Model the fold of this input.
Amino acid sequence: MDFALSPEIDALRRRYRDFVEAHILPVEANRANWDAHENIGLPALKVLRVKAKEAGLWAPQVPEEFGGMGLSTVGMAACYEEMNRSIFGPVVFNCAAPDDGNMWMLARVGTDAQKERWLRPLAEGKVRSAFAMTEPDGCGSDPSLTYTTATRDGDKWVIKGRKWYTTGAEGAQTFTLIARTSDDDRKGLTAFLFDADQPGWEIVRRIGIMGPEEHGGHCELRFDGLEIPDENRLLEVGDGLKVTQIRLGKARLTHCMRWLGMARRALAIGMDYVETRESFGGKLIDRESVQLKLGKAAMDIEVGRLLTMRAAWMIDQGDFARKEISMAKVAVADVLHDAIDTALQLNGARGYSKDTPLEWMYRYARQARLVDGASEVHMMVLAGQLRAMKQGFWHWGLADDA
Done:
Protein backbone atom coordinates (compact mmCIF):
# COMPACT_ATOMS: atom_id res chain seq x y z
CA MET A 1 0.00 0.00 0.00
CA ASP A 2 1.14 3.53 -0.74
CA PHE A 3 0.53 6.06 2.03
CA ALA A 4 1.00 9.04 -0.27
CA LEU A 5 -2.30 10.75 -1.03
CA SER A 6 -3.25 11.34 -4.62
CA PRO A 7 -2.76 14.97 -5.73
CA GLU A 8 -6.54 15.40 -5.91
CA ILE A 9 -7.18 14.13 -2.36
CA ASP A 10 -4.26 16.08 -0.93
CA ALA A 11 -5.53 19.28 -2.55
CA LEU A 12 -9.00 18.63 -1.09
CA ARG A 13 -7.51 17.92 2.34
CA ARG A 14 -5.76 21.30 2.22
CA ARG A 15 -9.01 23.02 1.26
CA TYR A 16 -10.71 21.54 4.34
CA ARG A 17 -7.78 22.65 6.50
CA ASP A 18 -7.93 26.19 5.15
CA PHE A 19 -11.72 26.40 5.53
CA VAL A 20 -11.54 25.28 9.17
CA GLU A 21 -8.81 27.83 9.84
CA ALA A 22 -10.56 30.74 8.12
CA HIS A 23 -14.21 30.13 8.96
CA ILE A 24 -14.83 27.61 11.76
CA LEU A 25 -12.13 28.29 14.35
CA PRO A 26 -13.16 31.97 14.71
CA VAL A 27 -16.76 30.88 15.31
CA GLU A 28 -15.65 28.26 17.83
CA ALA A 29 -13.57 30.87 19.70
CA ASN A 30 -16.68 32.96 20.45
CA ARG A 31 -18.75 31.27 23.17
CA ALA A 32 -21.77 33.26 22.05
CA ASN A 33 -21.94 30.84 19.12
CA TRP A 34 -22.33 27.80 21.41
CA ASP A 35 -25.65 26.29 22.46
CA ALA A 36 -26.68 25.22 25.97
CA HIS A 37 -25.27 21.72 25.42
CA GLU A 38 -21.81 22.98 24.37
CA ASN A 39 -22.28 22.33 20.68
CA ILE A 40 -22.30 24.91 17.92
CA GLY A 41 -25.52 26.93 18.00
CA LEU A 42 -27.91 26.38 15.12
CA PRO A 43 -27.80 29.98 13.81
CA ALA A 44 -24.00 29.87 13.51
CA LEU A 45 -24.14 26.37 12.05
CA LYS A 46 -26.60 27.43 9.36
CA VAL A 47 -24.28 30.22 8.17
CA LEU A 48 -21.23 27.97 8.06
CA ARG A 49 -23.08 25.21 6.21
CA VAL A 50 -24.01 27.66 3.47
CA LYS A 51 -20.34 28.63 3.16
CA ALA A 52 -19.27 24.97 3.08
CA LYS A 53 -21.68 24.24 0.24
CA GLU A 54 -20.54 27.30 -1.68
CA ALA A 55 -16.92 26.17 -1.24
CA GLY A 56 -17.72 22.73 -2.69
CA LEU A 57 -16.87 20.94 0.56
CA TRP A 58 -20.29 19.50 1.42
CA ALA A 59 -20.86 15.85 2.41
CA PRO A 60 -17.72 14.28 0.91
CA GLN A 61 -18.79 10.79 2.02
CA VAL A 62 -22.17 10.87 0.24
CA PRO A 63 -22.59 9.50 -3.31
CA GLU A 64 -22.52 12.19 -5.96
CA GLU A 65 -26.06 11.46 -7.13
CA PHE A 66 -27.30 12.63 -3.72
CA GLY A 67 -25.29 15.83 -3.67
CA GLY A 68 -22.08 14.58 -2.08
CA MET A 69 -18.56 14.05 -3.37
CA GLY A 70 -18.36 10.25 -3.30
CA LEU A 71 -14.91 10.10 -1.70
CA SER A 72 -13.08 6.85 -1.12
CA THR A 73 -12.55 5.75 2.49
CA VAL A 74 -8.90 6.80 2.25
CA GLY A 75 -10.00 10.22 1.04
CA MET A 76 -12.46 10.46 3.91
CA ALA A 77 -9.71 9.61 6.41
CA ALA A 78 -7.50 12.43 5.18
CA CYS A 79 -10.30 15.01 5.05
CA TYR A 80 -12.13 14.06 8.26
CA GLU A 81 -8.91 14.48 10.20
CA GLU A 82 -8.59 18.04 8.93
CA MET A 83 -12.25 18.81 9.68
CA ASN A 84 -11.91 17.97 13.36
CA ARG A 85 -9.15 20.47 13.98
CA SER A 86 -12.20 22.35 15.21
CA ILE A 87 -14.51 20.71 17.73
CA PHE A 88 -17.37 21.93 15.52
CA GLY A 89 -15.83 21.01 12.18
CA PRO A 90 -17.51 17.76 11.12
CA VAL A 91 -21.09 18.93 11.63
CA VAL A 92 -20.45 21.95 9.39
CA PHE A 93 -19.64 19.64 6.47
CA ASN A 94 -22.47 17.18 7.31
CA CYS A 95 -19.96 14.56 8.46
CA ALA A 96 -20.83 14.28 12.17
CA ALA A 97 -22.27 11.29 14.00
CA PRO A 98 -24.89 9.92 13.93
CA ASP A 99 -25.95 11.32 10.53
CA ASP A 100 -22.63 10.33 8.96
CA GLY A 101 -23.06 6.62 9.69
CA ASN A 102 -26.77 6.66 8.89
CA MET A 103 -26.12 8.14 5.46
CA TRP A 104 -23.42 5.54 4.76
CA MET A 105 -25.81 2.77 5.84
CA LEU A 106 -28.68 4.00 3.67
CA ALA A 107 -26.40 4.37 0.67
CA ARG A 108 -25.27 0.76 1.13
CA VAL A 109 -28.48 -1.10 1.94
CA GLY A 110 -31.43 1.12 1.02
CA THR A 111 -33.63 0.50 -2.00
CA ASP A 112 -33.82 3.23 -4.63
CA ALA A 113 -37.13 4.41 -3.14
CA GLN A 114 -35.70 4.39 0.41
CA LYS A 115 -32.66 6.34 -0.67
CA GLU A 116 -34.81 8.98 -2.29
CA ARG A 117 -37.12 9.33 0.70
CA TRP A 118 -34.70 8.91 3.60
CA LEU A 119 -31.16 9.51 2.35
CA ARG A 120 -31.59 12.56 0.14
CA PRO A 121 -33.00 14.88 2.86
CA LEU A 122 -30.17 13.80 5.16
CA ALA A 123 -27.55 14.33 2.49
CA GLU A 124 -28.92 17.79 1.75
CA GLY A 125 -28.83 18.71 5.44
CA LYS A 126 -32.57 19.31 5.62
CA VAL A 127 -33.17 16.85 8.48
CA ARG A 128 -31.25 15.01 11.18
CA SER A 129 -31.36 11.31 12.06
CA ALA A 130 -30.88 8.78 14.85
CA PHE A 131 -30.05 5.07 15.15
CA ALA A 132 -32.06 3.32 17.89
CA MET A 133 -30.37 0.11 19.01
CA THR A 134 -29.16 0.27 22.64
CA GLU A 135 -31.69 -0.74 25.32
CA PRO A 136 -31.92 -0.18 29.09
CA ASP A 137 -32.62 -3.86 29.78
CA GLY A 138 -30.02 -5.42 27.53
CA CYS A 139 -28.73 -4.47 24.12
CA GLY A 140 -25.50 -2.47 24.07
CA SER A 141 -22.33 -3.98 22.69
CA ASP A 142 -24.29 -7.25 22.34
CA PRO A 143 -27.17 -6.75 19.86
CA SER A 144 -28.51 -10.25 20.65
CA LEU A 145 -29.94 -8.81 23.89
CA THR A 146 -32.59 -6.86 21.96
CA TYR A 147 -35.99 -7.02 23.66
CA THR A 148 -37.89 -4.40 21.64
CA THR A 149 -40.23 -6.40 19.42
CA ALA A 150 -41.67 -5.92 15.94
CA THR A 151 -44.80 -8.02 15.37
CA ARG A 152 -46.13 -8.38 11.85
CA ASP A 153 -49.73 -7.35 11.24
CA GLY A 154 -50.56 -7.64 7.56
CA ASP A 155 -48.40 -5.21 5.62
CA LYS A 156 -47.12 -3.39 8.69
CA TRP A 157 -45.08 -4.04 11.83
CA VAL A 158 -46.13 -3.06 15.36
CA ILE A 159 -43.28 -1.97 17.63
CA LYS A 160 -43.19 -2.27 21.43
CA GLY A 161 -40.25 -1.77 23.76
CA ARG A 162 -37.64 0.74 24.90
CA LYS A 163 -34.35 2.20 23.67
CA TRP A 164 -31.91 4.57 25.30
CA TYR A 165 -28.72 6.53 24.64
CA THR A 166 -30.14 7.11 21.18
CA THR A 167 -27.80 9.83 19.92
CA GLY A 168 -29.43 12.80 18.23
CA ALA A 169 -32.99 11.69 18.88
CA GLU A 170 -34.31 15.05 20.08
CA GLY A 171 -35.16 16.95 16.91
CA ALA A 172 -34.32 14.10 14.53
CA GLN A 173 -36.76 13.35 11.71
CA THR A 174 -35.40 10.05 10.39
CA PHE A 175 -34.95 7.03 12.68
CA THR A 176 -33.48 3.60 12.11
CA LEU A 177 -34.79 1.02 14.58
CA ILE A 178 -33.44 -2.44 15.39
CA ALA A 179 -36.16 -4.76 16.74
CA ARG A 180 -36.65 -8.46 17.39
CA THR A 181 -38.80 -10.34 14.88
CA SER A 182 -37.97 -13.93 15.96
CA ASP A 183 -35.96 -15.90 18.52
CA ASP A 184 -33.36 -17.02 15.98
CA ASP A 185 -29.84 -16.34 17.32
CA ARG A 186 -28.50 -14.96 14.04
CA LYS A 187 -31.62 -13.96 12.12
CA GLY A 188 -33.85 -12.73 14.90
CA LEU A 189 -33.39 -8.99 14.37
CA THR A 190 -34.77 -6.71 11.65
CA ALA A 191 -34.05 -3.07 10.81
CA PHE A 192 -36.77 -0.51 10.09
CA LEU A 193 -37.08 3.16 9.16
CA PHE A 194 -39.66 5.50 10.67
CA ASP A 195 -40.43 9.23 10.84
CA ALA A 196 -40.46 11.28 14.01
CA ASP A 197 -44.04 12.46 13.45
CA GLN A 198 -45.51 8.94 13.42
CA PRO A 199 -47.69 8.09 16.46
CA GLY A 200 -46.98 5.23 18.86
CA TRP A 201 -43.67 6.29 20.34
CA GLU A 202 -42.21 9.04 22.53
CA ILE A 203 -39.01 10.49 23.89
CA VAL A 204 -39.11 9.78 27.62
CA ARG A 205 -36.15 11.96 28.51
CA ARG A 206 -32.91 13.47 27.29
CA ILE A 207 -30.20 11.77 29.34
CA GLY A 208 -27.57 14.09 30.76
CA ILE A 209 -24.00 12.99 30.10
CA MET A 210 -20.51 13.82 31.38
CA GLY A 211 -19.31 15.52 28.23
CA PRO A 212 -20.63 17.94 25.61
CA GLU A 213 -23.49 16.63 23.50
CA GLU A 214 -24.26 16.12 19.84
CA HIS A 215 -27.28 18.00 18.53
CA GLY A 216 -30.31 16.15 19.86
CA GLY A 217 -28.51 14.67 22.85
CA HIS A 218 -28.78 11.06 24.02
CA CYS A 219 -32.36 10.06 24.64
CA GLU A 220 -34.52 7.32 26.13
CA LEU A 221 -37.38 6.22 23.85
CA ARG A 222 -40.56 4.26 24.51
CA PHE A 223 -42.48 2.37 21.79
CA ASP A 224 -46.11 1.45 22.44
CA GLY A 225 -47.74 0.47 19.18
CA LEU A 226 -45.69 2.34 16.57
CA GLU A 227 -46.76 1.00 13.17
CA ILE A 228 -44.14 0.77 10.43
CA PRO A 229 -45.11 -0.21 6.86
CA ASP A 230 -43.21 -3.23 5.56
CA GLU A 231 -41.87 -1.07 2.70
CA ASN A 232 -39.82 0.77 5.33
CA ARG A 233 -37.93 -2.37 6.32
CA LEU A 234 -34.20 -2.40 5.52
CA LEU A 235 -33.01 -5.53 3.68
CA GLU A 236 -34.84 -8.77 4.50
CA VAL A 237 -36.61 -9.89 7.65
CA GLY A 238 -33.87 -11.19 9.94
CA ASP A 239 -31.12 -9.03 8.46
CA GLY A 240 -31.06 -6.56 11.35
CA LEU A 241 -27.70 -7.78 12.64
CA LYS A 242 -26.27 -7.42 9.14
CA VAL A 243 -27.54 -3.85 8.91
CA THR A 244 -26.06 -3.11 12.32
CA GLN A 245 -22.66 -4.47 11.32
CA ILE A 246 -22.68 -2.47 8.09
CA ARG A 247 -23.75 0.68 9.96
CA LEU A 248 -21.29 0.40 12.84
CA GLY A 249 -18.24 -0.99 11.05
CA LYS A 250 -17.36 2.05 8.98
CA ALA A 251 -18.81 4.41 11.60
CA ARG A 252 -16.19 3.19 14.07
CA LEU A 253 -13.48 4.09 11.59
CA THR A 254 -14.90 7.54 10.88
CA HIS A 255 -14.85 8.16 14.63
CA CYS A 256 -11.12 7.40 14.51
CA MET A 257 -10.61 9.79 11.61
CA ARG A 258 -12.27 12.62 13.50
CA TRP A 259 -10.59 11.81 16.82
CA LEU A 260 -7.16 12.02 15.23
CA GLY A 261 -7.90 15.56 14.10
CA MET A 262 -8.97 16.48 17.63
CA ALA A 263 -5.85 14.85 19.10
CA ARG A 264 -3.65 16.87 16.74
CA ARG A 265 -5.48 20.09 17.67
CA ALA A 266 -5.00 19.38 21.38
CA LEU A 267 -1.31 18.72 20.95
CA ALA A 268 -0.96 21.93 18.91
CA ILE A 269 -2.52 23.89 21.79
CA GLY A 270 -0.02 22.28 24.13
CA MET A 271 2.89 23.06 21.81
CA ASP A 272 1.90 26.68 21.39
CA TYR A 273 1.86 27.16 25.14
CA VAL A 274 5.16 25.49 26.09
CA GLU A 275 7.03 27.26 23.29
CA THR A 276 6.30 30.64 24.87
CA ARG A 277 5.77 29.90 28.58
CA GLU A 278 8.82 30.66 30.74
CA SER A 279 9.44 29.06 34.13
CA PHE A 280 12.51 28.81 36.35
CA GLY A 281 14.75 30.61 33.91
CA GLY A 282 13.79 28.99 30.63
CA LYS A 283 11.02 28.03 28.25
CA LEU A 284 9.05 24.88 29.04
CA ILE A 285 9.72 23.47 25.57
CA ASP A 286 13.43 23.22 26.42
CA ARG A 287 12.84 20.91 29.36
CA GLU A 288 13.44 17.21 28.80
CA SER A 289 10.34 16.21 30.78
CA VAL A 290 8.17 18.29 28.44
CA GLN A 291 9.89 16.96 25.32
CA LEU A 292 9.27 13.38 26.45
CA LYS A 293 5.54 14.06 26.81
CA LEU A 294 5.33 15.75 23.42
CA GLY A 295 7.34 13.07 21.64
CA LYS A 296 5.24 10.26 23.08
CA ALA A 297 1.96 11.97 22.16
CA ALA A 298 3.17 12.73 18.63
CA MET A 299 4.30 9.14 18.10
CA ASP A 300 1.02 7.72 19.38
CA ILE A 301 -1.01 9.97 17.08
CA GLU A 302 1.04 8.77 14.11
CA VAL A 303 0.49 5.12 15.09
CA GLY A 304 -3.25 5.81 15.23
CA ARG A 305 -3.12 7.45 11.81
CA LEU A 306 -1.37 4.43 10.30
CA LEU A 307 -3.87 1.97 11.79
CA THR A 308 -6.78 4.08 10.59
CA MET A 309 -5.41 4.57 7.10
CA ARG A 310 -4.63 0.87 6.69
CA ALA A 311 -8.20 -0.04 7.62
CA ALA A 312 -9.50 2.62 5.20
CA TRP A 313 -7.31 1.26 2.41
CA MET A 314 -8.55 -2.29 3.04
CA ILE A 315 -12.19 -1.18 2.89
CA ASP A 316 -11.50 0.49 -0.46
CA GLN A 317 -10.08 -2.83 -1.71
CA GLY A 318 -13.38 -4.56 -0.83
CA ASP A 319 -12.32 -6.06 2.49
CA PHE A 320 -14.50 -5.77 5.62
CA ALA A 321 -11.34 -4.95 7.64
CA ARG A 322 -13.02 -6.11 10.85
CA LYS A 323 -9.89 -6.65 12.91
CA GLU A 324 -8.18 -3.58 11.45
CA ILE A 325 -11.16 -1.41 12.42
CA SER A 326 -11.20 -2.91 15.93
CA MET A 327 -7.48 -2.25 16.36
CA ALA A 328 -7.88 1.34 15.17
CA LYS A 329 -10.91 1.90 17.41
CA VAL A 330 -9.12 0.70 20.56
CA ALA A 331 -5.83 2.46 19.80
CA VAL A 332 -7.21 5.81 18.66
CA ALA A 333 -9.64 6.04 21.59
CA ASP A 334 -6.61 5.84 23.89
CA VAL A 335 -4.59 8.20 21.70
CA LEU A 336 -7.34 10.82 21.86
CA HIS A 337 -7.49 10.76 25.65
CA ASP A 338 -3.72 10.70 26.15
CA ALA A 339 -2.99 13.52 23.70
CA ILE A 340 -5.59 15.76 25.32
CA ASP A 341 -4.41 14.82 28.80
CA THR A 342 -0.83 15.68 27.82
CA ALA A 343 -1.85 19.05 26.38
CA LEU A 344 -3.97 19.84 29.42
CA GLN A 345 -1.10 18.99 31.79
CA LEU A 346 1.34 21.13 29.84
CA ASN A 347 -1.08 24.07 29.99
CA GLY A 348 -1.55 23.68 33.73
CA ALA A 349 -4.42 25.67 35.20
CA ARG A 350 -5.02 27.25 31.79
CA GLY A 351 -5.79 23.83 30.33
CA TYR A 352 -8.22 23.04 33.15
CA SER A 353 -10.04 26.33 32.60
CA LYS A 354 -12.43 27.24 29.81
CA ASP A 355 -9.88 29.60 28.24
CA THR A 356 -9.01 26.75 25.83
CA PRO A 357 -11.19 23.92 24.45
CA LEU A 358 -9.01 21.33 26.20
CA GLU A 359 -11.38 20.72 29.10
CA TRP A 360 -14.24 20.30 26.58
CA MET A 361 -12.12 17.79 24.66
CA TYR A 362 -11.11 15.97 27.84
CA ARG A 363 -14.73 15.34 28.86
CA TYR A 364 -15.66 14.41 25.30
CA ALA A 365 -12.75 11.96 24.97
CA ARG A 366 -13.86 9.70 27.80
CA GLN A 367 -16.73 8.38 25.71
CA ALA A 368 -14.36 7.17 22.98
CA ARG A 369 -13.58 3.95 24.83
CA LEU A 370 -17.32 3.21 25.13
CA VAL A 371 -19.16 4.28 21.96
CA ASP A 372 -19.67 1.83 19.08
CA GLY A 373 -18.36 -1.06 21.17
CA ALA A 374 -16.35 -0.79 24.38
CA SER A 375 -12.59 -1.30 24.02
CA GLU A 376 -12.85 -4.60 25.90
CA VAL A 377 -15.35 -5.94 23.36
CA HIS A 378 -13.02 -5.07 20.49
CA MET A 379 -10.17 -6.81 22.32
CA MET A 380 -12.35 -9.93 22.50
CA VAL A 381 -12.99 -9.63 18.75
CA LEU A 382 -9.25 -9.42 18.14
CA ALA A 383 -8.60 -12.45 20.34
CA GLY A 384 -11.20 -14.40 18.36
CA GLN A 385 -9.56 -13.36 15.10
CA LEU A 386 -6.16 -14.44 16.43
CA ARG A 387 -7.51 -17.85 17.42
CA ALA A 388 -9.07 -18.32 14.00
CA MET A 389 -6.27 -16.93 11.84
CA LYS A 390 -3.19 -17.97 13.86
CA GLN A 391 -0.10 -16.58 12.05
CA GLY A 392 -2.35 -15.23 9.28
CA PHE A 393 -3.44 -12.52 11.73
CA TRP A 394 -0.33 -10.55 10.74
CA HIS A 395 -0.89 -10.50 6.98
CA TRP A 396 0.50 -7.67 4.87
CA GLY A 397 -2.27 -7.30 2.31
CA LEU A 398 -5.93 -8.28 2.38
CA ALA A 399 -7.31 -11.02 4.59
CA ASP A 400 -7.58 -13.39 1.63
CA ASP A 401 -3.84 -12.98 1.01
CA ALA A 402 -2.86 -14.39 4.42
Notes: The two ends are 15 Å apart (CA to CA). The domain at 129-238 is CATH 2.40.110.10 (Butyryl-CoA Dehydrogenase, subunit A; domain 2). The chain has twelve helices and ten strands. The first strand starts at residue 129 and ends at 132.
